[in-house]
Amino acid sequence: MLSAVSVWVWGTRERHTISSHRLQQEESAMDNSLARYTNLSGTIGYSSNRQNLLPTPLSNTEELRLLALFEATTDDSEKSSLVPKIVRIGGDKSAEAFVATLLADRGARPLDQSGLRLIDSTIRGLGHLSSTSKLAEDFLVNGMAPSHWSQIRTWRMSNESAEKWEDQSLAGRCLVALSYSRSPHAYDFIAKRNDLASGEVVGWSEYIVDATFHLELVERIGRDAVLDLHAEDLLAEFDRWKSSGSGKDIYNWYRKLNNIP
Amino acid sequence: MHSLPQLMVCEDTDSMPTLIKLRAVHAVWLLSTGSGASAQLATPPPPRSTELFTKSVYDFTLVSGDYTDCHSYIVSDEVSKSRFSSDSPFSGYNLVTSSHSFYGSCGLSEIEEQWYFPSHGNPPQWLPALYSSSSQNPPWPVFSEGPYWTYNAFPNTGSGIWGFGDYFTSEYFPQWPLIHETDRHFGTHISVRHTSWYAEERGIELVVTGTYYNWNPATREWLPAGSIPATAFTVAGKPLRCDGHLIITGTSGDIDVTPIAHIYNYYTYTVSAFPTKDVHLTRSYHPSLGTIPSVPERHGNFFTDFDGCKTEAEAAGDSIITELDGVPVQVEFHIYDSATLQFPSPYSNPNFNDIGTLATLTSLINADFANDKQVHSINVSTSEGTGMYGATSPTEPKSVLETRADARVWKHEIAHKLGVLNHRLDLNALMYPSYNSTNQNELNRAERAKMTLTP
User: Looking at CB atoms within 10 Å, which of A95, A147, B31, B129 has the fewest?
Assistant: First the structure.
């Protein structure tokens, strides 16, 4: 039984190898600001309702500085590395920047791993922002329809099977992202999962599992604490969750649907 | 806690300056990764074996007396041997007794040596030889030769070195007064006998410590005078690292690893050999990747750290050094194609190639069809950002790795497979959870212990 998972993740420091010196200085200054913010907002808490998830209001100085960095770079990896910081303090302006990233014209070119990572991180970032940004929440709600992505997506996947799967995958990630802010839309979708057509439910099942996990995790330890989880801690939380209680039920439901031994 | 400091300090405390102490230890760490031809094998090769043994030579030479035909006895024998498999480091230890009786021109001679090995030491080790009737003081080897005499063998105060080419003067007292006197040359070589299925050279890690002695002619005692710096030793013609370690490589066969401390005349030493522990893994990849993804090439000294360089004695009991000082560790892993080289259904679905959920990630990690599963991307959002190079089960040797994961990522995940956890104390640590720098290679003593002790 998997009790915890050890991982090697993409580190934010990696970007320093390709960042300009000025950018590093900016980020260093921003780190200090964020540290102050984190202390002010409190990082650990047991939120029992969504209202408690709202971050402490800020002047938008930090957000603007981070967004300036985000928009200044054209490197997908660097953009991705900024997302975890932006989502801690961002609002509508950050949501706009993330949506713009997702809608940017990629010329129907196949996404490489860095591109995939940026798409994924901005969707997840919108999920965190959706606790304060109506723009973010609306984009994700619309994004829960695979057909929506087929209309707006400007990239292709590197192989045919992935290409067929991509719209469903993006829709599923929107569902998971909404769970970060404990959006009612996420609850509603999960509650109605049995209404999904048999051909659809398999594709949605893994995202329903992850969304359910995050809804319960955020409720239990709070949004900021979730943002602070290291990879191995997150996976350990997931493993504990899927091994007992409601998590076990829904994880087994997912395995059965997907014929996973 | 790592075994090495324990081993270094535990045996000598009873003031028995044994000539040679051997520790045949557990696992080995060699560095490399298999690829190419070895990666195509469906099943692992038979395990390698490494044994550490002494070869002693006794040479009696008459100095004075009447027994002119008693000279030049040469008894050559491997006095002790302990064999173990690199895959079964805790087995194969026996109580070894070696006894030789022969009639020579001096009459009946008997040499009896008893070597005691703890059968289940942790880690297993060789203790000093305990010779029969060794109730003498000083506790040098006592030999009973025939019904006629018993004598003690004392170290000579002349030139020579202990361990290798020791020089003893023996006084035979078959009856009083002295009839004759002989010189005894007692030479001991430490060798590693390496049996390897692999054609190429593989590594063996050696650890040596030493103490030098001064002779007090008034009391006829040898007194320990201090520790010998590691850098004063050479083994197999190579100087020890400053932490007392040395990694040598060899194919099958015997390798003389007798430590030589050139500027010291009288000393004892301890030798430890760590035969390589091979880690055999199978890999599989997602069919959508198209071409077969590569596995890491062989790397030398990948886990070696040359800064700090604390000795084992300095590190013993010091948690900071244990945690922060990188140490050389050799690891050799071999990656074979799984019988199911491409993911079977349902893992062949595209969501198992570009992984976006914890559900798919954990279910793929736990799948049984291969140890390591190679995918295009892993995108899971955490505090470090989105994405992972690899993820490993802490309870089973199973991982999921991105195709762009390089050798360091593989070794990081392999370390996880051997029970080593992430830590954030050192950006140069191999086990730092994020991929940070090109210097991210180091393992500390605690991690080395984990890796070498893992079956």
Answer: A147
Question: In chain B, which residue's Cα lies nearest the Cα of A8?
Answer: B433
Task: Using an 8 Å CB-CB cutoff, list chain B residues near A2.
Answer: 362, 365-366, 393-396
Which residue in the set A13, A120, A232 is minimally distant from B436, CB to CB?
A13
Residue B176 domain boundaries = 3-275
Q: What is the pLDDT of residues B269-311, one digit of tens each?
A: 777 776 666 777 899 999 999 889 988 765 444 455 555 677 7
Instruction: Say yes or no: B287 and B305 in one domain.
Output: yes
List, as one string, the DSSP characters of B317-336: T-HHHHHHSB-----EEEEE
ipTM of the complex: 0.79
Q: Do B160 and B92 fall into the same domain?
A: yes
Question: CA A6, CA B417: separation in Å to the nearest integer?
Answer: 9
* Pair (B92, B232) in one structural domain: yes
To the nearest whole angstrom, how far is the Cα of B386 from the nearest Cα of chain A? 6
Domain boundary among B257, B275, B293: B275
pLDDT of residue A99: 97
Task: For B233-273, write each residue's pLDDT tens digit.
Answer: 999 889 888 778 888 877 777 787 878 887 876 666 777 77
Q: B110-115 contacts: CB < 8 A, separation 24 or more?
A: B110/B144, B110/B145, B110/B146, B111/B58, B111/B75, B111/B143, B111/B144, B111/B145, B112/B143, B112/B144, B113/B79, B113/B80, B113/B141, B115/B79, B115/B80
Q: Which of A2, A9, A169, A241 to substitute to test the interface with B, most B CBs within 10 Å?
A: A9
Residue B332 and residue B374 in one domain: yes
* Domain at B350, CATH number: 3.40.390
Domains in chain A: boundaries = 192-261
Residues B140 and B38 in one domain: yes
CB contact under 8 Å between A117 and B379, yes or no, is: yes
B350-361 tens-digit pLDDT: 999 999 999 999
Q: Which residue among B376, B389, B396 sits closest to A10, beta carbon to beta carbon?
A: B389
Pair B371, B281: CB distance under 8 Å: yes
pLDDT > 90 in chain B, percent: 13
If one counts the domains in chain B, the total is: 2
| Closest CA relative to residue A167, chosen from A193, A141, A188, A144 | A144
Partner-chain contact B288 A159, CB within 8 Å = yes
Which of chain A's residues have a Cβ under 8 Å away from the Cβ of B362? 2, 5, 235, 238-239, 242
The per-residue pLDDT for range B19-63, each reduced to its tens digit, is: 222 222 222 222 222 233 333 344 555 555 555 554 443 444 444
